[in-house]
Amino acid sequence: LFFKLPSDSFKYLGWCDIEEHDVRGNQLHCPRVREGPSEEELFFRKEEHTLKKRKQVTDTEKWEKRLQENWENCAELNLSFQDLGDLYQVENFKRILRRLIRVEKLWLVDNSLTDLSAIRLPRCRELNANKNHFTSFKQLPKIPQIQHLSLAENNITTLSGISDLRHTPLESLILKRNPCEFQERYRQLVFSNLPNLKILDGIPKLPEDYSPPDVRFFYRICTIL
């Protein structure tokens, strides 16, 4: 790159934990969920001098920190704008997502996400994943209870795989500013694949959104006058 990234000014700052506080992860409006790189990774990146020597963390301390995060009991969570620039940040982010077994409303806006197909959100009713890098419906997490799904400003090119949402109670879907929006008979195809859908891109289902009858059907009918 011939220009500096926004995070370049923080390159040599140390990572530290804020200890001795009562704030839990599910009390933050938009928490950062990533951890610092391991000492091994810093060694290979030749940046081990940038962080102070870390103390050895006991199993008890690890468990206390895990309880403090309390992701399993989150019902509403905003994890947008995480700036996931390194692999360890992405992996830690997905580790948090796998723990969201009770989340009902989740925001993942502008995280450069490409594939969450290995993630399952069993109770999620509302998911906002705008401004990511999804290219297919197959890359979405498993969301069997989804009712409102927003995928605006991704890179979903076709409607292939959208039928995976057919057996969900999905009522509202936003696909604005995706290439698939320009597909011929776009609205008719979406509604034909999602029978429960009521609103697409903020517009309720219109009479012209119903798929026309299959013309081939009439060729099989013998009409006697």
Automatic annotation (TrEMBL):
Please tell me whether the keyword Repeat is annotated for this protein. Answer: yes
Q: Which Gene3D superfamilies match?
A: Ribonuclease Inhibitor
* Keyword Repeat recorded: yes
Q: Which domain of life is it from?
A: Eukaryota
**Keywords, in A-Z order:** Leucine-rich repeat, Repeat
UniProt xrefs under PANTHER family: GENE 29133-RELATED (PTHR18849:SF4), LEUCINE RICH REPEAT PROTEIN (PTHR18849)
Name-wise, this protein is TILB protein
Q: To which species is this protein native?
A: Leucopsar rothschildi (Bali myna)
Q: What is the lineage of its organism?
A: Eukaryota, Metazoa, Chordata, Craniata, Vertebrata
The gene it comes from is Lrcc6
